[in-house]
Design brief:
Strand content: 5-15%
Distance between the termini: 56 Å
Shape: flat
Structural class: alpha+beta
Strand order of the largest sheet: 22-21-23-24-25-28
Number of strands: 28
Amino acid sequence: MAAAAAAAVGGPQPPQPELPAPGLALDKAATAAHLKAALSRPDNRAGAEELQALLERVLSAERPLAAAADGEEAAAAGGGGGPGAAEEEALEWCKCLLAGGGGYDEFCAAVRAYDPAALCGLVWTANFVAYRCRTCGISPCMSLCAECFHQGDHTGHDFNMFRSQAGGACDCGDSNVMRESGFCKRHQIKSSSNIPCVPKDLLMMSEFVLPRFIFCLIQYLREGYNEPAADVPSEKDLNKVLQLLEPQISFLEDLTKMGGAMRSVLTQVLTNQQNYKDLTSGLGENACAKKSHEKYLIALKSSGLTYPEDKLVYGLQEPSAGTSTLAVQGFAGATGTLGQLDSSDEEDQDGSQGLGKRKRVKLSSSTKDQSIMDVLKHKSFLEELLFWTIKYEFPQKMVTFLLNMLPDQEYKVAFTKTFVQHYAFIMKTLKKSHESDTMSNRIVHISVQLFSNEELARQVTEECQLLDIMVTVLLYMMESCLIKSELQDEENSLHVVVNCGEALLKNNTYWPLVSDFINILSHQSVAKRFLEDHGLLVTWMNFVSFFQGMNLNKRELNEHVEFESQTYYAAFAAELEACAQPMWGLLSHCKVRETQEYTRNVVRYCLEALQDWFDAINFVDEPAPNQVTFHLPLHRYYAMFLSKAVKCQELDLDSVLPDQEMLMKLMIHPLQIQASLAEIHSNMWVRNGLQIKGQAMTYVQSHFCNSMIDPDIYLLQVCASRLDPDYFISSVFERFKVVDLLTMASQHQNTVLDAEHERSMLEGALTFLVILLSLRLHLGMSDDEILRAEMVAQLCMNDRTHSSLLDLIPENPNPKSGIIPGSYSFESVLSAVADFKAPVFEPGGSMQQGMYTPKAEVWDQEFDPVMVILRTVYRRDVQSAMDRYTAFLKQSGKFPGNPWPPYKKRTTLHPSYKGLMRLLHCKTLHIVLFTLLYKILMDHQNLSEHVLCMVLYLIELGLENSAEEESDEEASVCGPERCHDSWFPGSNLVSNMRHFINYVRVRVPETAPEVKRDSPASTSSDSLSSLHNSGTAQVFSLVAERRKKFQEIINRSSSEANQVVRPKTSNKWSAPGSAPQLTTAILEIKESILSLLIKLHHKLSGKQNSYYPPWLDDIEILIQPEIPKYNHGDGITAVERILLKAALQSRMNKRIIEEICRKVTPPVPPKKITAAEKKTLDKEERRQKARERQQKLLAEFASRQKSFMETAMDVDSPENDIPMEIATAEPQVSEAVYDCVICGQSGPSSEDRPTGLVVLLQASSVLGQCRDNIEPKKLPITEEEQIYPWDTCAAVHDVRLSLLQRYFKDSSCLLAVSIGWEGGVYVQTCGHTLHIDCHKSYMESLRNDQVLQGFSVDKGEFTCPLCRQFANSVLPCYPGSNVESNLWQRPSNKSIQDLIKEVEELQGRPGAFPVSISSETNLSKEMESVMKDIKNTTQKKYRDYSKTPGSPDNDFLFMYSVARTNLELELIHRGGNLCSGGASTAGKRSCLNQLFHVLALHMRLYSIDSEYNPWRKLTQLVEEMNSQQGNEEQQPEVPILYHDVTSLLLIQILMMPQPLRKDHFTCIVKVLFTLLYTQALVALSVKCNEEDRLAWKHTGALKKNACDAEKSYEVLLSFVISELSKGKLYHEEGTQECAMVSPIAWSPESMEKYLQDFCLPFLRITSLLQHHLFGEDLPSCQEEEEFSVLSSCLGLLPTFYQTEHPFISASCLDWPVPAFDIISQWCFEINSFTERHAEQGKALLIQESRWKLPHLLQLPENYNTIFQYYHRKTCSVCTKVPKDPAVCLVCGTFVCLKGLCCKQQSYCECVLHSQNCGAGTGIFLLINASVIIIIRGHRFCLWGSVYLDAHGEEDRDLRRGKPLYICKERYKVLEQQWISHTFDHINKRWGPHYNGL
């Protein structure tokens, strides 16, 4: 075909007319070379044509896509490999042509040489691990790939590692985004100068080939795209096309990686408009091209876009699914004249479904919009490529290709412009997308690379109207989900808001666009343009107003709402992201005076928008009842810009404030929110479900508070400082619905509030006032002071970790604001206010994190309850702060009782807000305070200590902020004539405090007690006149007061706005719906605020006349008022403090206080309590008492439980264990008594009703991990480091056994060693016992219990019924006494020879048990079943070592090895030696005694043939020595010197009838010690060299005839050497010899030490065994005397032994038969073996018996070293990089966690490894999470992390990515739990892993 095609091409014929096969590389190369030559000629037209033709043929788009389009049929019909083959072919051709005939790889290398790589630009996709350094970053989005990060120097910087969410690119080398100091070594050099110029012919072919190639790709994309049907998403089709194009796009991607030279060629190709025009116009005669052009036009149209040349009339086209019809009609209007914009509203009613009437959105410049939203004209390949990338919803490969090109500067600009041009189209596609999450990530992946660069963003803003486009696109996007607002006036409201239930908001679909917008606003140059452009500001305020009042809540009054909507998440997220963050971005550029103009602009348009909003919702003066919205972004914009203006720009506040009427309107909604918060916390909204509480919490939560509650409170502060204070105060109480409560009468009617809510609403109102008046966040605090106050508030609530503090301190959400978390100021403030508490351990094993706790002086001076109340999300945190404060005061001895919140001095107010303090000096507030003090004194109901506390706080605030020191003269004038107002004479609190109020007229229900009193008016005429004189106080109605003020303000012309007229208080009672049965009563009060305070003091202290003015004793107090004793205390202290301050402020007050105190105060009149009232009071009291009782009980219960858990669970402290009853039986009792923890009965264990110990059996390989050097192995962190398990104890024993099995008889081998180093069964108990039948029924009940347990009952697992410790079996207690052992321990005077005989006889006599095995008793059944359990605990491979499977020797070996394992492990738990002596930590809970009985019973079943009994060989001489050599063909038995002595000991003892006699035990030990000592001598002789051997042989021989020759090691050693010299043991090649010889010279001391060390392990195990069998205590000793102490304890040392001269181990020997005879007999066996196998014989003799304690691997200091090596490491099994890599901390194996790749027979790799490495226990470090996971059998648990950051915190899942360092203490705890096998007991949260880890 190729030949035919070539022939058809005109022009010069190709050189080879007949191509035999089209695919031969050779021919391709030749063609390519030819073409290259042709094109290099000056006149290259012919070459170009030829190339064109070739490309036309090779890249024709028809074949593959026909296949793609018609699916499989075409592929089948096409035959030749389907569509793939043709494409392969095309790619091959391209590669050949690019290389111009050379090899493609060489070509790549050549191009790379010309790479001027100044930028890294590595592009990564999601889940990639990258770094971000805040110290080096200019843009907050800066990120570095790991390589660049580690190559740069970032020591001491604030950096973190993170997992990329959306993908990103490395910024190394880009000085626009990061500081050059942070560049890595590769990108520091400006290398453009040294790179030579690219030779023209290198890339010449590329320039010709690539345009066609890219065009071909675009044709594919056009062909493959079918507009999805409206309802069915067609992702499948799109993905299919994309899969086909995979190789092509990858090819392009590889090209970009060739470096700068190739990238610039690609840029030329992609941006060249001529190329594009020539190839894609579709005007040629090529039908295929025509077709693809048509498809392209269709795709454009279906996207709701027009192609400018199409003569379509705008607005007539079909609107696409995503754009609302509204928008389309909007365009129709827009093309007309500008005036039409606001034309008739009616025409689009039908179009916008359910939107009703709405104001047309004014867009900034209507002529542009249509072009923004609707016109796309593609002029280059790049533009169309991006178009299809969007159309196909951003395929990852395409995105990566487009981003890989970015290091090319020219491309970057072109691409950014193209991206902006397609912005509206991106929005439409995103809205329609089904995978909006993925798509969002990909969009941001691109845009963050473009818009983070300030220079680029500025350029695009200027040249492409970036800001217009973004704002317009956002506006259009939100327009599709608007609904009518129901706030205020439901029927006539014209306001529209977004509907939070729509997917657009619920799924955050808008975030990519908003995040781009925030990103570009962070650039100053761009933000300035935005702030200068009035049109844009108007549009933006329009956008913000869509969110104003969204998610409206209406209070449910009747029944509970049936469906709790969760839309509030969407609402809060939308306000934060779409409104607040852009606002913070803009604010960050308004920092200096020069930017005043910007603020004025924003404020102006904000106010306009607010005015429009008030009009739209028909707002007059009263908010609609029972409605609240938490979303007022316009108010908050206004507030924040005001705050900035005053704080940073020195603007005059009044110049940017509106008139009074507007201020009144402005304060209503924020105030409504504050009142609603109190209502929600008073449970008045309970019928609206939990979500309303959720909203109240979110509103104050740390991420939202500074964009929500803070601006709201600030705005209210501003309003309060400018409005009439009486109006403001009365508004507050009215909003909080507590007006009716503020009456002097003891009873009242509240028409708007239920009685049970009154108290908490009153508390809410007063607390709000306190916050309003004392908060200074925006009123004069500096940033550092704010940070400090926030931090103190958070620390006072609870101790915090560093990361939670960072999270809780509201940071300015805009990253460029300056206070970045972790910044310098954060750390310095933290160290100033808090102390670090390092992480500690609790005995239960639970791990603490490092915490910060407030310093003492912070509690003393800075604890600010107001700030705490403002910042608490949960109300319990306020209580927690107060409790901690109380504890501090008690501890430091400052105050013993229950303190009140302290009063804290405030920062000074900024002068602009001085008016705020007028609230404290207005009559309305004073009347309220007076009334409340009076009510509290009279014990009216519904008042609390909290109310009093707040009242006093407000009085104190007023005294602290009194306007001016009033002169005493002025005060004295203040007589009755000045009292024009009935309550108080003036507005100054200082003077009003002393004003006596005599009578008050109140309205009360007729039932009230006040009515029944005689009216004072009827007494006498003079009193009546006095009544007129003092002017009876009138009823004070807040509501009426407020209404009047409001009217006044509205009617007054603005010129008088500043004069405040004080009207007389109206006498109208205007509570809505007031009932007629109210009557007026006049109360006689005769009190002033001062007198009330003094009486309160008496009431609080419970003593009459308790207040005595302190200045009468100590006049100093008045001069130097700051007295620390008043700082902390309760209400009494507060009252004293206030009275002192009042006296200080005016002499008049001082005098009056003294006067009041002189009068002896009469007792408070007893209150008349109605029966009903009494009932409610009693009820409340009873409730309170019941509550207290319950709390007390619970606390007591908790503490009991805790103390029990501590005793039961503590593995490390034996003192508080529950002693085991077994040990405590008195000598006279004949049988041991056990308590059953289930039925509670005590009694002995009997054959038919046996008792058992609760035990946990587990397989363990801890012993096998012992090595012979003390230093633990290190975890490998480079390829070179490897861990080989050859030197572990398990491996050595394994090798030894297999060596023996090679040369000796199998059954004999299995008696010569122990197994169980790996997979040995360890038995542990909690020490509790139970009847076995009780246990069975307990298991039944567990089986039927459906509660999810952490264990599996079917596997026999349960928890001890008493201490809840995990267990899985019951070990029967052997019937019989404890005391018998005492009888057996009497020393007998039999000679050793007699004892040896007895031992032999006893071993030979089977069944010498009290329990005969033949009769099946309950006990023997249980013993068998527990034996079965023990066997099943470990895997078969750890039990079967015999060559003949199932041989009884196997079981025999297994059983005595279980005993060995338990003894060895106990030795390890004691630290490897017995120096500490005493009972072991496990002693009281040891079950070895019972275990021995069970094992012995089963061992007796296998009686050893007496021929083979090793006991014979140890104690008797064999007559004829040659008999053994006769039977050559049969394998010999293991020579006795090769036997493991400890194993022999266990065999001997377990073969004896139990219970064992002490003298028999000692006898066995003595005999075995002789063998052990001989082995030591033999090993010593093999270790030393020939000369030493000869010397020793000589010296020993001289002493052979001395009397104690058998007890002299020299003699014995010389004898051993001479005996062994007869064989070939010492004959070996010289080369070998050097290896074996130890270089040290042997002195008698070192030899003695060697012999002792050799024997010690045996002595230790034997002593432990003796301790368990006979209950003797172990003596404690120094390490150097351990040998002598143990040997005397075991009875090896003669008692008459003197300790003067140095101790010699040989003195312990006690030979049963003449030493020399028996030794020569033993040596003979060795010699006969070494005749043939000298090497092996020698190896078997040198046993390494000195194992050190097992350790986990040593971990590196810094976690990063582990992470960097392992997270990219490939798994050795499946050679992939695992998704969840893990590494075993016992042996260092690298495994795939949960990886299906490495699954074997349904076991995942970690579980499998835990079985092979730890016999079912695995300890894995999860690389990507830094946590440790424990696998124990079929369960697993997360253990925690041993790596902590600098602040002592874990970083699970590496979320924070801060550097982590090893915590040695934690690692020690982990290792301890591993060695002591206590994972099951200490860790609580276990779950089944179903083999899936």
